[in-house]
Each structure stands twice: as C-alpha cells, then as structure tokens.
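Example record

The entry below shows one chain as it appears in the dataset: sequence first, then structure tokens.
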Amino acid sequence: MVGAGVVGSRTVRSLALAGRRTGIHDRRGEVQRSVVREIGAEPLDDPGSIDPEQYRVVVLAHPGAQADSADRLLRRGCHVVSVADDLAETRALLELDATARLAGVTLVVGAGASPGLSGLIAADLVARLDEADEIHVAFHGTAGPACARQHHGALGGGALGWHDGEWIERPGGSGRELLWFPEPIGAKDCYRAELADPLLLHRAFPRAERISARFSATRRDRLTARLPMLSPPHREGSLGGLRVEVRGGRNGERVTLVAGVAERTGTIASVVAASVAEHLLDHHPATSGTAVLGEGRLGDPDILDRVIDRSLRVYEYVGSGK
C-alpha cells in the first residue's frame, strides 16, 4: 500500500484482517508509523524498490500523480491497483498499457468508489438486459482531504460525456438533475463535473450510446468551484453515495435499472481496492496491460462478490409497488 490516508489505511487494514501479508509506505513518517503500530503492517521506506517476490500487488492510494509511481512498479514486475479518480491522472495511467504488457503484469485503473464500484454495478445491471444503450452515474460525498479538494475543483472543470457516438464536453456545474440515492441520503441535486467515470465506462461498455457522470453539490459548491476551498476539508467526509442507472431493452420493452450504495466514501473505495487486490492475488490475470472494472477482463462477478462479502450493501430500486 502506497498512501496511508483514509482510503489507504482502511484498505491495508482490510487486507491484513483477511490474513494477507501487508506493507505500507507514506511520505508522512508519523502517519506511516501510526498505521504500522495499529495494523502490524511492514513499513516500506521506498515504494520504488518493492520486491515483487514479496509484494505481488501494490495499491496506490496516495494523493497527486500516481502514473509515475505506477510506471516504476510495473517495470519491477508488480501488479498495480490505482484508486485515482482525477480525469487527467486516469488518462495518464491508461497510457501505461504498453509498459504493463511488456512487464507481463496488470494495472487496474479506477479501483475506488467512482470510478470502480460504478463499473462493477454497471456490469451487473447490463448483464440483465438484452442491450444496454445508456449508463448514467452519480456520486455524493468525499473521502479524505485530497479527495475533497479534487472533487471541489472538478465542479469547475470541463465535464466529459459520451453522447450518440461522440465525446462532448460541458461546463462543470451545469446540467442539474435531482437524483435519489439509497437511504438515508435520499434526493440530491447533482451536476456535471470533470469526472473520470465516462472515460472508463466507455471502454468497458463501448456499445452504450450515452454515458454521463454527475456529482452532488450545493449552490455554494458551484459558486466557489473555481476558487480555493473556503474552509479546510474534514479528515473524512460524511456519508457517501453511489447511484448507477442503466437503460436498455429486454424482451422487446424499454427498461431502466437503478442500483447503488450508501456508506462512507473512504469505506466504499477501500473495500473495492482491497477486493481487487485479493482477486489479483488469487486469480492471476490471463492477459496483461491496463484493465478497468466492468469490462470483463478481471472477473467482475468475483470482485463484486468480494465487495459484498466485506459487508458493503448494494441496494437496487425495485419500484414503488403502486
């Protein structure tokens, strides 16, 4: 594990409780020592010199650029799991496909809450339809301070979307929709933002004609998105929520399927990251290179089962009963 913040510390704890050998590195020495004392993980001074014979899978959960870290680790022969959700960073990670293939290892891009669990849930819903042509994702909440700052800026960026066979870009903070998340979150105003989900979902589901992603926000969030945060973010945000909506055809009828989760954002991301890491340890990928959740290269049903086994409850909307 590289990064001992909210997501990193919970991921390494989850893997340690499952009986996996764990090591952790964080540039903040005291933070690293605290996690080592609490969990019993081995302290790692230099993640760039990790021995793949000792640690076959490395999870990247540190803030900032992860592509450089991933590049070094791939070249050493380690499988890498990244929880990065920044759009530019996601693109940089996808460009490491040739490096991973040459090393004969796998780089999983977007293995957190959204993107990550969004792809797993979308794959499960798509499999129930004869044909799926729309996928729409919405997210509420943030994990640690770095996540809060990134999402704050995303509302002021350019929102990527896939619309009728071509990429479109709309202003962040536009496109308001009132969307319902699993309780106790309920209804939230959600807006376009500079999110990585459309990029990865299009790769996983290239036949979908429309793909979008939105993030919940208040009026104040939208007005200050292009400014520095007015107050320091909390160490961990409040309850987070993910909503995945898939539309398509089944038995000649138009069908809409909706599922999601309500849990602390850091918990969602760490559960997904730990489940992906375990899957890579237990089932060596048949092919190397970059992979995204939902596209079917990694055994998505097994990973989703591991997520649920870690007590993350997935809710599905089944109608009002009226």
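Notes for this example: The CA atoms of residues 68 and 93 lie 9 Å apart. The chain has two domains: 6-112+268-309, 117-265.
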